C-alpha cells in the first residue's frame, strides 16, 4: 500500500484534471479478473469488486482523486502570471512553493512582495491571491503565452518525504491516502461485493461524490478521507479521536476543544497543572473560562480562546430594538439558524428551563429535556420552521445567503467574522442572542460556552519542557499575536480588546450562555438533539406529535449511547 501511496501523492491531479491518478489506478487494476469499471461523465472511476458472496446490501467505498491547486488567470507583461486557487487552498500556503505548470509540468515558483519591503501593517496580514504571482523564469512575451495561457493548471510540486520511523510529509495526502487504501482493498480478496468510487472534484464542492451517489445508489457508504492531525494548530475538535487512540505515541503538547477533556482525562492524556502554571491560568482568566478547563477539581489545560456563538445581522434590515427578539426578526427579515445542529438547538430548550446535568457538573442529575417546558419549545419550533422567513443554516446556507442578500441574520462564532464582514461590509452588526416569546413569556436563548486550550501529555518524556512550551503557546504574548494576526479573541484578561465582536462575545458569555457540561454522559446528548432538529426541518414533527417526539428525545438523551 505504501508504494501506491507514494506514487499517488507524487502525481498531479487538481480538481477537474484527475486523469493522472485515474490512469495510475487503472494500470494497477487492468490485469485483475475480479473487477470491472466505468468512468462516469464527470470523470469519477467506479469499480465493481467481486467478492466471495453477493452482499445483502449495496456498499460504496469512496476516496477522492483530486487535490487543491491553482490556475493561471492572466499573463503579465513583467514575465509573471496571476493565479487563483482551485479548491480551498489559502494563499499563505502557496507562498514560496515550487510548482509544476501545465501538461508539460514546467517548473515555477510562487512569489510576492519581499518581507523586507512590507509595511508594518502589511506584515500583520496574510497574503491574498491577488498579491501572489507565478514566476517561471520566461522572459520573451511569445514564450510566456505559449508556456501558460489563461486556464492552465498549476500544481504543487511533488515532495513525498519519509520522516522518522512512521511519518511522511507530502502534498496531496488529502486524499491520496484514501485512494491508496481503497486501491489496496481492491487488490485483496473481498468477502462481499462492493463498489469502489474514486471521485473527482471533491475540493470544489463534492461534485464527483454527488454524481456517483446517484449512479451507484448505495444503501451504505464509507468515505476514506484525510484530515488534520491532532498535534497541529487548528485541530482542537479532533483531539480526543486521535490522541486517545495512541496516547503514548501522540504529541507531548497539543490543542484541544474543552469538551474533549473528559475523554482525554479518562485516557490519561492530560496532565494536571500545578504551581506557577496553575496560578497563571486562574489569575489571567475569568471564572467561566477557568471552569471550562477544570475537571474533577483539577485544571488540566491552558485556555487560549473562548468558544461560543452569537448573532451576526444586517443593520440595514434590523434595528437595535429588533435584534432583542427572535420573533421580531422573523417578522422583518430572513433569519438563518442551524436548527439541525445539536450545538445550537439546545439554545431554545435551555431558554425555557431545560437543563443538562444540573449546573453542568452533576452527572447524576441527567438531562432534563422533559415535560411541558420542553414540549412547549418543540411546539414553538414547529411554527419557526413553517415561517417563510426562517432558513435552516446547513451546508453554508447562511453565509451564502448573506452574500447574495437572501439572508439577513446568521448565528455563528468568531471563525466566520471575516466572511460575514466581506458579505455585509459596514452593515455588519454583532450581538448576543435574542429572546423568544413562548406563550406570552420572553425566554432567553442560551448558547454553549467553552474554550479552546492547550494540553500536555502526561507521557511526555520531558515534562518540564512540555509544560513550558504549552504555557508559552497559551501565554499573553502568543494570545495577543493570535488576535493581532488572526482575530482570535484572547482569554487572558490582561489583554485589552476593543471591537464589536469582542463586545458581543463578552456579552454572550456573561448574559446569553451556559457552560457546556464536562461530564462523560454529555456524549448521549448530541445525536438525539441533532435528530430532533433534522426531524423538525423535515416536517416530521408537528403540533400533534410534538410532546411525544420531545419525550422520545429526552429518553434517548438519558440512555447510554453505547447501549
The oligomerization state is single chain
Helix vs. strand class: alpha+beta
Largest sheet: 6 strands, antiparallel, barrel
Q: State the separation between the terminal residues, measured CA to CA.
A: 36 Å
- Annotated CATH topology of the largest domain: D-Maltodextrin-Binding Protein, domain 2
Mean pLDDT: 89
Tally of extended strands?
A: 28
Portion in helices = 25-40%
Give start-end ranges of low-pLDDT stretches: 230-234
**CATH class group of the largest domain:** Alpha Beta
Would you spell out the secondary-structure blueprint of this structure?
Elements lengths: L1 H8 L9 H11 L5 E5 L5 E5 L9 E6 L4 E7 L4 E7 L4 H4 L3 E4 L4 E6 L8 H4 L9 E3 L5 H7 L5 E4 L4 E3 L3 E3 L3 H14 L7 E6 L7 H10 L3 E4 L15 H5 L9 E5 L3 H6 L8 H10 L2 H6 L1 E2 L2 E2 L2 E6 L2 E5 L11 H7 L2 E3 L4 H10 L3 E2 L10 E2 L2 H16 L3 E3 L4 H8 L4 E4 L4 H8 L3 E4 L3 E4 L2 E4 L2 E10 L6 H11 L2 H11 L13 H12 L1 E3 L10 H12 L8 H12 L6
Parallel strand pairs: 3-12, 3-13, 19-22, 27-28
Antiparallel strand pairs: 1-2, 2-12, 4-5, 4-9, 5-8, 6-7, 6-9, 7-8, 10-11, 14-27, 15-16, 17-27, 18-23, 18-24, 20-21, 25-26
Helix pairs in contact: 1-6, 13-20, 14-21, 15-16, 20-21
Amino acid at each position: 500500500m505504501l508504494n501506491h501511496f507514494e506514487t499517488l501523492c507524487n502525481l498531479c491531479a487538481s480538481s477537474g484534471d484527475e486523469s493522472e491518478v485515474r490512469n495510475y489506478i487503472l494500470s494497477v487494476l487492468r490485469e485483475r479478473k475480479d473487477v470491472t469499471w466505468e468512468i462516469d461523465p464527470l470523470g469519477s472511476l467506479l469499480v465493481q469488486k467481486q467478492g466471495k458472496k453477493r452482499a445483502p446490501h449495496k456498499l460504496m467505498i469512496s476516496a477522492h482523486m483530486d487535490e487543491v491547486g491553482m490556475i493561471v488567470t492572466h499573463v503579465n507583461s513583467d514575465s509573471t502570471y496571476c493565479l487563483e486557487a482551485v479548491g480551498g487552498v489559502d494563499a499563505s500556503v502557496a507562498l514560496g512553493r515550487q510548482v509544476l505548470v501545465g501538461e508539460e509540468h514546467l517548473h515555477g515558483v510562487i512569489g510576492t512582495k519581499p518581507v523586507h519591503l512590507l509595511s508594518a501593517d502589511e506584515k500583520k496580514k496574510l497574503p491574498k491571491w491577488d498579491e501572489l504571482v507565478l514566476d517561471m523564469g520566461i522572459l520573451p512575451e511569445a514564450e510566456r503565452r505559449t508556456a501558460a495561457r489563461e486556464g492552465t493548471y498549476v500544481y504543487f510540486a511533488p515532495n513525498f518525504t519519509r520522516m522518522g520511523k512512521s511519518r511522511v510529509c507530502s502534498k496531496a495526502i488529502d486524499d491520496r491516502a484514501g485512494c491508496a487504501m481503497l486501491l489496496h482493498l481492491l487488490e485483496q480478496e473481498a468477502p462481499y461485493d462492493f463498489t469502489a468510487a474514486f471521485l473527482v472534484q471533491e475540493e470544489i464542492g463534492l461534485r464527483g461524490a454527488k454524481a456517483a451517489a446517484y449512479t451507484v445508489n448505495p444503501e451504505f457508504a464509507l468515505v476514506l478521507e484525510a484530515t488534520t492531525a491532532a498535534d497541529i494548530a487548528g485541530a482542537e475538535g479532533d483531539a480526543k479521536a486521535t490522541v486517545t487512540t495512541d496516547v503514548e505515541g501522540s504529541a507531548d503538547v497539543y490543542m484541544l476543544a474543552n469538551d474533549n477533556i473528559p475523554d482525554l482525562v479518562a485516557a490519561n492524556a492530560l496532565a494536571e497543572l500545578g504551581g506557577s502554571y496553575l496560578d497563571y491560568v486562574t489569575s489571567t482568566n475569568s471564572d467561566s473560562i477557568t471552569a471550562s478547563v477544570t475537571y474533577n477539581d483539577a485544571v488540566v489545560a491552558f485556555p487560549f480562546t473562548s468558544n461560543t456563538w452569537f448573532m451576526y445581522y444586517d443593520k440595514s434590515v434590523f434595528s437595535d430594538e429588533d435584534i432583542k427578539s427572535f420573533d421580531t426578526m422573523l417578522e422583518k427579515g430572513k433569519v438563518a439558524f442551524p436548527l439541525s445542529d445539536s450545538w445550537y438547538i439546545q439554545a431554545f430548550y435551555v431558554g425555557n428551563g431545560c437543563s443538562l446535568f444540573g449546573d453542568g457538573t452533576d452527572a447524576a442529575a441527567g438531562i432534563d429535556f422533559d415535560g411541558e417546558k420542553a414540549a412547549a419549545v418543540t411546539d414553538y419550533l414547529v411554527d419557526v420552521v413553517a415561517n417563510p422567513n426562517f432558513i435552516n443554516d446547513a451546508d453554508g446556507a447562511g453565509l451564502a445567503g448573506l452574500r447574495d442578500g437572501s439572508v439577513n441574520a446568521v448565528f455563528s462564532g468568531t471563525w466566520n467574522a471575516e466572511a460575514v464582514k466581506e458579505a455585509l461590509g459596514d452593515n455588519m452588526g454583532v450581538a448576543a442572542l435574542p429572546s423568544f416569546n413562548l406563550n406570552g413569556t420572553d425566554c432567553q436563548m442560551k448558547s454553549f460556552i467553552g474554550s479552546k486550550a492547550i494540553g500536555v501529555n502526561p507521557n511526555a518524556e520531558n515534562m518540564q519542557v512540555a509544560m513550558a512550551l504549552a504555557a508559552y503557546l497559551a501565554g499573553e504574548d502568543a494570545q495577543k499575536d493570535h488576535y493581532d494576526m488572526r482575530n482570535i479573541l484572547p482569554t487572558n484578561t490582561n489583554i485589552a480588546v476593543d471591537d464589536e465582536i469582542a463586545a458581543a462575545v463578552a456579552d454572550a458569555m456573561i448574559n446569553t450562555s451556559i457552560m457546556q457540561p464536562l461530564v462523560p454522559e454529555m456524549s448521549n446528548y448530541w445525536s438525539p438533539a441533532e435528530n430532533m432538529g433534522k426531524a423538525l426541518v423535515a416536517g416530521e414533527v408537528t403540533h400533534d406529535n410534538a410532546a411525544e417526539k420531545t419525550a422520545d428525545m429526552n429518553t434517548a438523551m438519558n440512555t447510554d449511547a453505547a447501549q
